[in-house]
Each structure stands twice: as C-alpha cells, then as structure tokens.
Amino acid sequence: MARVGGAIHRQQGTGWRGPRKATRPWPAQARYPAREHGGRQQVQKASATMGSAQNVTGATGGADSLVAELRDARARVESLEKSERLQQALYEIADLAGSDLEMDEMLQRLHSVVAGLMYAENFYIVLFDDVRDSYRFLYFADRLDPYVAEPEQEIFAEETPTSLTLALLHHGEPVLGSSDKVRAQLSVGHDDRHGPDSEDWLGVPMRRDDRVCGAIVVQSYDRPDSYGDEERALLAFVAQHILTALDRHQAREELERRVEERTQALQQSNRDLQSEIVERQRAERLQRALFRIAELSITSDTLERFYAQVHDVVGELLYARNFYIALLSEDGERLEFPYSIDERDAARVTRRLGAGMTEYVISSGRPVLADRQRIAELEAQGHWRSHGSLSHCWLGVPLFRNDAVVGVIAVQSYSNAINFSARDQDLLTFVAHHIGIGLARKQGQDRLIAAHVELEQRVESRTRELAMANAELLEQIGERLRAEQKLTHQARHDALTGLPNRSQLLDRLGTAISNARTSARHSSMGETPRVFAVLFLDLDRFKLVNDSVGHSAGDDLLVEAGRRIVATVHDGDTVARLGGDEFAILIEDIDGLHAAEELAQRILNALGQPCWVAGREVFPSASLGIALWHPRYHTGAELLRDADAAMYRAKASGRDRCAVFDEAMREQALQILDLEADLRRAINGDSFIAHYQPIVRLGDNAVIGHEALLRWRHHARGLLSPGEFIGVGEDNGLIEEVDWLMYAQVISRLSVDGTGYISINVSPRHFRTDDFADRLLRLIDAAGADPNRLRIEITEVALLDDVPRALRTLETLRGHGVLAQLDDFGTGYSALSYLHRFPIECLKIDRSFVAGLTGDSKNESIAVVRAIQALAGALGIYTIGEGIETDEQRALLRELGCDYGQGYLLGRPAEQMASTIAPSVNR
Ligand code: C2E
Ligand code: MG
Ligand code: MG
Questions:
Q1: Cα distance between residue 755 and residue 874, in whole Å
Q2: How many CB atoms lie within 10 A of CB 32?
Q3: What are the pocket residues of ligand 1 if the criterion is a CB atom closer than 6 Å to any ligand atom?
Q4: What is the pLDDT of residue 248?
Q5: For residues 248 and 242, what is the distance between their CA atoms, to the nearest angstrom?
Q6: Which residues have C-beta under 5 Å from ligand 3, the single-atom ion?
Q7: CA dihedral in degrees (807, 811, 812, 816; nearest 10)?
Q8: CA–CA separation, 141 vs 109, rounded Å?
Q9: Which ligand is nearest to the CA of 708?
Q10: Which pLDDT belongs to residue 13?
Q11: pLDDT at residue 23 in the model
Q12: Which of 695, 706, 709 to mutate to test the pocket of ligand 1 (most atoms within 8 A of CB)?
C-alpha cells in the first residue's frame, strides 16, 4: 500500500477520491476536518434541562433563591460529576499507561475514555516529528472515514500542504471551531478534494518539553457547538495525560521490544554458538577421521583391512550401513569392488563398465546425491541403470588420483527414514579426497611390500635352488670324492688282498727314509737312531699251485698268505702285495737287524702252517730277503731292489728261509748294475757273437746240427757266457734285443754255412709277444735262408705262461718249417699233461740229469732220464742229451734210448761250426 508522498502524486491525475483505503494513505480528516459533533450539544442539552428547573424556582419567588441554590447545587454536582469523571478518566488513562495491553487495544480504550468526557465518535491521535516535519496517525476512528490508522506510515509535511492536522501541529495551540473558521485561523486554503467539512472541530496539540509532538482531534459533522472551551481545556488536559500514557506505553513497548530483541539476539547468538559447537565437533570428527585415514594408509597390514577401517571411519561421520568402494581396473575397462558391505546385496562382483550409478559418477567426475525420485529421473533420462537393490537414497563420490577418477565411494540407504544431505555429500567428498590419497599411499605401500615380498620370495627360491644345486654339487663332489677315494684306494691297494700296493709302499718307504734321516741327524746329538727294514717275500713254488689247482686257488692262497703276514707284523708296519706271489713288508722303529730277522722268521713260521686251498692241503713256504735301512739309500725302490736281491739269495739257498742283503750282495748288485749299463751300450755295437756247439748222433758221432750259443765280447771282462749276463738281460728285458741281434747273425750264417740245422735259444719273453713268429719268419725270409734248417729251443716256462699264444706261435713257425725243441727238460714244472698239445720236435734232457748219471744220485737221474725217454716215446719224439762230458754218460744215454747228444765230449761251442754232418739226421 502506497503511504508515502510519491504514491499520492501518482494518484493525483486519476483522482484520489476513489477507494480511500486503497488510494489514500491518510484519513480525510488529516486534511479535511469533518463536521463537528458532540460535547457542546450535550452541554447545551444539560443547560436546557437546568433552565427549565430554574424557571420553576423563579415562579415561586422565594423559591427563586431555592432554585438558584438548586441551580448552584446542580452546577456543583455537575462540576463534581465532571471532576469525578475527569478524575476517573485520568485514573483510567494512568491505568492504561501501566497496563499490558497492546497499543491498539490501549488506544481504543483511550478513545473510550475521551468519549466518556465529550462527544468523540470521530477521534484521532497523530504523532509529529518536528525535525523531519512529518507525522503519523497513531489512532483513527471516524464515522464517515473508514481509514485505518497505520502508525508506521510517516507522512511528510510537503505531501499534505492543505492538511488541517498538519496546520494544527505547526500552529502548536489548541484550535476550535468549524472547518472554515479553523482554516481561516490557521491560514489553510480550502481544498475540494478534502471532502465535507466538520461542523465543529477541536484539535489539541500534545507537547513534550515545549515541542509539539502530536495532537488529538475530535470533530462533529453535524453539530456546530459540540465543543467549547471546557472541552478544549479538558481535551488539552487529557491529551497531556494521553501523551504520558502513550510515552509510558511506548516506553514499555520499547523496553519489551528491546528485551525481545535482546532475547532474540541472545537466542540467536546461543543458536550460533550451538551450531558453532556442532560445527566444531563435526570439524574435529572430520579431522580425526582424516587423521585416522592417513594413519590407516600406513598402519593397515592389508588393503582389505584398510578398506574395512576406512568404512568404520566413514560410519562415524555419516550413515554408512551400506558402503562400497569401486575401483577402475588397470586397463580401465572393468569395475572392481575391493570392498562392499551391504544389507541387501551380499557381494558385488567385478563387471565390465556399464551404465551403473557408479559408472555415472566416474564418467561425470562429480558427486551424485540422489533420492528415489532423482534415481528414477536419471534412469528415465538414460543417465544410468541402477544395479542391485533399489536404494532409497544413494550418495556416490568420485575417488581421484592425480586428477583422474579412479573409483567411487558410495553409501546408500534402503529406508525412507534415512536420507543423505548435501552436507553428507560434502563430507564424503572431503573424506573421499583423503581416501584417494590414502589409497594411493596404501597401494603404493602395498606394491612396495609386494615387491619386497616377491623379491624375498625370489631370493628365497633362488637360495633354495642354490642350496639344492649346492647339495647336488656336494653330493656330486661326495660321489666324486668317493670315486676318487675308491680310485685312490684302488690305485694304492691291491685288488685281490686289499693290501697296500707297490705305489703306496714306495710312498711309505719315502716317508720312512725321511724320518730315518731326521732321526739320524738327531742321533748325532745323542738320540738312538730310528731304523727300519724292508722284507721282500716270494712264495715258493707258487706257480705250481697256480698251474696245478688253478688261478682261483692261487688267489685264495695269496689272500691267506697276506692275512697271515698282516697278523704277524705290528700295527704300524706296512704289508704290501707287489704283484704275483711277491709281498713286501715295511717294519718301522726296530732296534736293528736282529729284530727284522726275528720278524722274518715269525712270518716264515706263520706261512709254513698248512692250509686248505681248493680242497687240498697245501704247505706253503716263502723266501724272504731283508734290506736294512742305510743312509746310502735315497729311494724306496733301492731298498726294495736290495730286499728282492736278498730274497733271490734265499731262494737260491734252498727256499723257505730268509737272507739279509749284505755287502757282498751289494757288490754283486753293483756289478749287475754296471753290467746292465754295459749291456745297453753293447747292444748298439757288435759285441755279441754266436758260438756253435754241435749236436751229434750218438750212434755214429755224426753232427746233425748246431746250437747257437750267445757270447758277449766284453770290452773289459773278455768273452762272457750267457750265465754271466743273461739274468740281467732277462730282468730288464734287454735280452730280447740281444736275441734279435743273435738271430740275425745266425740266420745270415745259415744261408751261407753248412747243411745241418741251427737251433737258437728263445727267451720266454718272446713268447709273451704276438709277433715273434712273424718277425722271425720275416728275418729268415729277408736273409733268404731255409726255415727248415732253423730250430728254436724253448723252456717249459715259455710254453706255460700263455698256452694258447705259445701254441699259436709254435704252429705258425712249424707251418713254415721252423721246428721247436724243449730245452732243459726236467728242471721245470714238467706240465706233462700239456706236452702232447705242443708241436715239439724233441726234448733236450737237462744237463743236470746227464751229469747225475755218473754222480751220487745216479739212480735218480737214470730214473728221470728213463721217464723222459718214455714220455718222448709216448709223444713220438726224439731226445737229445745235453752236457755229455764222458763216454760213460754217452753210453748210458744211449742205453736209456737217447739217440742224440751235445756236450764237451762231442764238441765245444766255437765260432766255427763242426764240419762233420750226418745227413741222415737232418730233418
Ligand atoms: P743251454 O741252451 O742248455 O745251452 C747249453 C749250455 O751247456 C751252453 O752253455 C754250453 O756251453 C754248455 N755245455 C755244452 N756242453 C757242455 C758240457 O759238456 N759240459 C758243461 N759243463 N757245459 C756244456 P752256455 O753257452 O754258457 O749257455 C748257457 C745257457 O744260456 C744256454 O743253455 C741257454 O739256455 C742260454 N743261451 C745261450 N745262448 C743263448 C742265446 O743266444 N739266447 C738266449 N736267450 N739264451 C741263450
Ligand atoms: Mg739251449
Ligand atoms: Mg739246455
């Protein structure tokens, strides 16, 4: 409603007499004092009444005074009544001032009070601001004017220049009279627009500290004398009280208003404080939550646990009964739900990115808060398709890492009692930001841990592999070591008896020598020197056992012999098997030679005990040579050699005994060494020559052939016979080379000389090679000689070493015309059982039997020769008697059936062959 001047001016053109309430912000009376009405009329009425009473009293004369008195009395009564009414009115006004009544109510009551004092049907109260020159209608009641007072509307003076009310306020004194009179008095022009004038108009200003602050106006539209001086005075008086009452009321209202304001301000500040407290608590909770999330990202042992704990934290901040975390897969094509707790949907499985609400949050990168209706709307708009149970309210916020959306955190409610607010959204967004950071940190940490774990696993598996490889290697090393040990053992032990072999014995001898040398040095300082001895042992006739009962039995005998020797010696002594039937014993720490001899004797005794081999009782024996340590020895081989030499001495002395290597033997040994050296040198020259001894038919002394006998023209010792060097040659193998020199000489001689045969002596060594026969035949062939004129002489030993090979060799030679004679027959083992298998031309009866034919053991020799003759007869071969020196021998041999002979009696070996040849025996 327009109450200010601007509105009035606008309305002036269209006529502002229209609907007053709507178009005019002030009452017509403000400008157009209405017709006066009221008090004066009533006073006149009362005076009229009193005048008629006066007339009654005057008519009676004396009654006049009575009437006068009555009049006075009435006047007094009236005056008293007036005073009383005024009094009453003032009381009421005072009461009203102190009452709790609302202003409107109070003003109405004031109106009633005034109406009790005078005619006041048309009554209004106006307040004036002389500084602003404006006024407001506080109260307005009018019979004709329906205006309703609007105390708040301020009307400025310039808006209503023709207003009587304004004129009254400016005038500052009570004004009474008709509208015309008042206008004239206050110099206000008439204005038609102001409507009908009042017949009587009474306006009384209200003053505060001599300044006009308002006015009260009563008016009457129909009676010109409604108000007089009395009413003017009365109204002025009442006006002052009304002002006081208004002031008081206003003051109270002001107070109340201020109290109310203050209360409201206090309440507001209380509310502010409360909300601040709530806000702070929330902020604190949030802060705490963020701290916890940050802490969890470090302390949670697994990501699953981190998610669960984050859920707890979120649950403290908002409703999170249903909560899940969705993450984009590495390739960004699937949605994974590493964590989901939901009262409806038990599990969320990884899915390809689709049109879900979660995907919507991811693609939009913004939080989404949606209730059932909004969910439906967005679904209808095709933004998403809701998965799982339909939630009542759904809140999802994106999870960021480096400004990229990597997932979503969502909470939802299935109850219409629970809704999420924008605040929850902010909260979850805020938390999500930190969860994103925490998640990144946690994932980083987990990746680091996983990398560590993987590294550890790799290290562990590598370590395991290495350990296994190591174990395998160790096993291999162990195997190799065992193999090595076995090999070493084999290399250092004899396979048959398990005893140390030659190599080990030589090592121990080396150690013994060095110990002995050290001890010898110490002995020069008074200590008894430590001595040791080497015993060389060879079983007697072992070959006989081997050949007669077999190699296996021979092995048994060797093992038994080794056992017996070991049992006899001391623990620290070394018993070694050197090969064949040869053993050697190293005896350490002995007092001297006698101790070695005693032990040798004990060994011989032990070996001499009978034993059972292959079901036969055997009485083994051995020959033993002893070499005692001497500083001249430098190697174990030297000691062994000397012990061996001593052993040969023992054997030569008749077996089953021991011999000590002494100075004579040493001398001999030295000679042998010298001889050996000479022999080597001789091979390179032409020192070897053949002497030929005739073989004669005893019946007519006809020479049927010659035996070629080796002679060495030694540069110092003259012509040497085989007996003086052949042993050395046999031992070191040089004899083979010497033989071939001989054979070449003989065969070349054969091609030019004589007609009978020449027999050559063949060392058993040649029968240990495969090409002897071929080489010999090549030699014959090369010389252009007749193989039929060549014979070979071999001993039984050559035959029995390797029977098949010997057979092959003999067969080959015989195939080419070279026949074989068995030399020195009767001295060997005479393995008669084999003899028939060999292609033998004849048996040469050993010289010892021929010599024996004339000696003490004549009968024995005759028996042997007779046996040999019988054997030869059985084999269908002839015999040659060797070493015939006497006619008696010659005769006896002939008697015994031996047709051929050789010996000094028949012809000595000489460079030239005998000339007389009996052609008949050349076969
Ligand atoms: P053997 O084959 O039995 O030769 C016969 C030996 O008896 C020869 O000795 C010969 O001189 C000797 N002798 C011959 N008649 C008599 C006699 O009436 N009285 C005595 N006391 N002795 C007689 P030699 O030449 O000293 O040869 C000894 C052995 O050396 C030979 O015995 C033979 O086994 C071997 N021998 C000889 N020459 C060679 C040869 O070229 N090569 C090989 N490997 N051994 C040979
Ligand atoms: Mg011979
Ligand atoms: Mg002979």
A1: 30
A2: 25
A3: 693, 708-710, 721-723, 726, 735, 739, 742, 761, 763, 793, 823-824, 847, 882-885, 902-904, 909
A4: 82
A5: 9
A6: 823-824, 882
A7: 160
A8: 12
A9: 1
A10: 30
A11: 40
A12: 709
Q: At what angle do helices 551-568 and 593-608 cross, to 10 degrees?
A: 140
Helix or strand holding residue 741 (H, E): helix 734-752
Q: For position 205, what pLDDT does the model report?
A: 94
At 395, which helix (H) or strand (E)? strand 393-401
For 296: left if phi > 0, alpha if psi spans -120 to 50, otherwise beta; the answer is alpha
Residue nearest to atom 22 of ligand 1 (CA): 883
Cα distances (Å, whole numbers) of residue 654 to 123, 594, 650: 187, 21, 7
Distance, CA of 920 to chain centre = 105
Q: Which residue minimizes the CA distance to atom 21 of ligand 1?
A: 883
Return the DSSP state at 29.
G
Q: How do 582-590 and 531-539 pair as beta strands?
A: antiparallel
Q: Are 219 and 202 in contact (CB under 8 A)?
A: yes
How many CA atoms within 13 Å lie on the side-chain side of 132? Answer: 11
Of 430, 419, 429, the closest CA to residue 319 belongs to: 419
How far is the CA of 384 from the CAs of 193, 339, 341, 389, 414, in angstroms? 71, 22, 22, 14, 19
Of 443, 395, 446, 449, which Cα lies nearest the Cα of 422?
A: 395
Spatial contact of 581 and 538, defined as CB atoms under 8 Å apart: yes
Q: What is the number of alpha carbons within 13 Å of residue 244 lying toward its C-beta?
A: 13
Contact status, residue 408 vs residue 399, Cβ threshold 8 Å: yes
Residue numbers in the chain where pLDDT is lower than 50: 1-24, 31-58, 917-923
DSSP string for 886-922: SHHHHHHHHHHT--EE-STTT---BSSPPS-B-GGG-
Q: How many other β-carbons are positioned within 10 Å of the β-carbon of residue 255?
A: 10
What the block records as the tokens of 751 is 């091609």
How many beta carbons lie within 10 A of that of residue 355, not counting itself? Answer: 14
Sequence-separated (6 or more) residues with CB below 8 Å from residue 899: 697, 698, 699, 878, 879
How many Å is the maximal CA-CA distance in the chain?
A: 257
Cα 856 to ligand 2 centre (Å): 25
> Residue 194 has what DSSP assignment?
G
Q: List the residue whose alpha carbon is closest to atom 27 of ligand 1.
A: 722
CA 161 remoteness from chain centre: 104
**Spatial contact of 324 and 339, defined as CB atoms under 8 Å apart:** yes
CA distances from 357 to 38, 347, 378, 494 (A): 83, 17, 9, 92
For the chain, counts of helices (H) and of strands (E): 27, 28
Q: Which helix (H) or strand (E) holds 405?
A: strand 404-413
Closest ligand to Cα 828:
3
543: tokens are: 């070959």
Identity of the residue numbered 637: A
| The dihedral formed by the CA atoms of 490, 491, 493 and 494, expressed in degrees to the nearest 10 | 80
pLDDT value, residue 810: 96
pLDDT at position 194:
62
Q: Which two tokens stand for residue 578?
A: 């050197």
Instruction: Identify the CA nearest to 889 among candidates 843, 859, 852.
Output: 852
How far is ligand 1, taken at its centre, from the CA of residue 538, in Å?
27
Query: How far from each other are the two terminal CA atoms of the chain, in whole angstroms?
Result: 181
Residue 102: Cβ within 10 Å count:
11
- DSSP characters over 420-474: --HHHHHHHHHHHHHHHHHHHHHHHHHHHHHHHHHHHHHHHHHHHHHHHHHHHHH
* Residues with a beta carbon under 5 angstroms from ion ligand 2: 761, 793, 823
Distance 860 CA to ligand 2 centre (A): 23
Say if CB 880 and CB 852 are below 8 A apart: no
Phi-psi region of 154 (alpha: psi -120 to 50; beta: other; left: phi over 0): beta
Q: Of 484, 536, 907, 428, which is closest to residue 697 (Cα–Cα)? A: 907
Among 379, 423, 438, 425, smallest CA distance to 398 is for 425
Partnered with residue 137 across adjacent β-strands are 126
